[in-house]
């Protein structure tokens, strides 16, 4: 927001006086302000005017305010107030004096292990509160973590946080920051709390090494590395890395969410004991897996599923006990079972639970439901508690999720046609018009553009137009030797090339000025559009060949030039090596070219 616009926001909601801008983001600006009622400093986040009319950004902005307002924790930036003014929206938050974790890493480099553990515990505590409220942050990164001068950590920017209870269906667009995004988030899969644990693992890795584990030329490249590549261990990059701290970080960064910490509570426990002789939690679990643990691990990590799994274990024990008793007493001639409750859990988990009791899951119907997530059970028959013979069918009605009238167009940029077709099919969309264009940024047969664009609304069954790369456009340099300079230059420019020239003296073969004597690169070479082509032009002017003086001592270079009657100038440049002092490190013009009689050569001498 320009400085001249501060006047518009001097007083907000008759309470918050704007002092100065302290930060800018993609969708909002943050100002330091005074709360005139409570006489305290506050941070006021104002939605940029460019986005105030966009309902998606407004919804995201309101969501951040509502999410933060219900989270109360010393390591989460507190929201005091929010509302609408002057056609835009604002959030009034706790003002945190200090720096972002990103700024600290950039200034200090790798942080001490004890500092990393301290910061990590504080961040994890904040996430634990968010997760207890069924919220996933989805954008944990050093830029969103503030540290006060007293080493107090504050997690901020819940702008793309989502409720686990309303966001369990497949994500239709990838949000977050590429360097810190989890593999499942990059693939647009179902997310749970462990996506934040992966991102936090990347942050810990960066605190320990002062660098992120994956880099690339663009966000797609980085996201693919999160999905496919194994990161180097910090100990492979640096010395004196605490082994247990490294194990904790690498455990957070497991590709498979099931292989990570199940919750940040276990992560906090390991961080508190990484300097002791006590084993880490995941080490102990790997050594003590039992059959019940294996069964529970197989069930997807949803709160309702976990409770149900525990209930079923107890139920099995009771069932085996009473079945054995009844069998011995010979009071029944066949086994009957009490139907377990299946409502509000996924069909996948329900099927596994029923299989333990020799019962069958039958999906009777699938209907839209705005309250029950897609794939979860709305109703069952028989109802819970009814006794049925072993082998009976349990009929259920599944939720298809909330009925939608549009979806968000998936991102196809950088994909092959085969990959894009599969994604579009999964989304119920079709590919209609396919055109091709040259591209210097994308390899041949990769998608470079699409319409509608990524994240734009489109009706189910709608069509998407695709532009595919023909690869980098190349030009074969024609044979223009012996042509006059004007004709040759115009021809090369018409092909999309940039022309530069130099002169050379006449020869027995070319004995008139203005004729192309040499082309660099040579004719027949393939070059890209806008490549530079050098033409060497004949001239009757008296020229002197430039000798090669590089690596000679200054005295040797002077003697050579004096003997050829060539003028020279000297420019001294700093060098890191004593052997380069007094040596010619470079020259202009370069050797092999020509200069006019009386012109000078510049010598670059190390000192």
From TrEMBL:
Pfam families documented for this protein: PASTA, Pkinase
Domain PASTA intervals: 331-400, 403-470, 539-607
PROSITE patterns cross-referenced by the UniProt entry: PASTA (PS51178), PROTEIN_KINASE_DOM (PS50011), PROTEIN_KINASE_ST (PS00108)
UniProt cross-references to SMART domains, sorted A to Z: PASTA (SM00740), S_TKc (SM00220)
UniProt keyword list: ATP-binding, Kinase, Membrane, Nucleotide-binding, Serine/threonine-protein kinase, Transferase, Transmembrane, Transmembrane helix
Domain Protein kinase, residue spans: 16-275
Transmembrane residue ranges: 303-324
Gene Ontology molecular function: ATP binding; protein serine/threonine kinase activity
Database matches in CDD domains: PASTA_pknB, STKc_PknB_like
Name by which UniProt lists this protein: Non-specific serine/threonine protein kinase
Gene source species: marine sediment metagenome
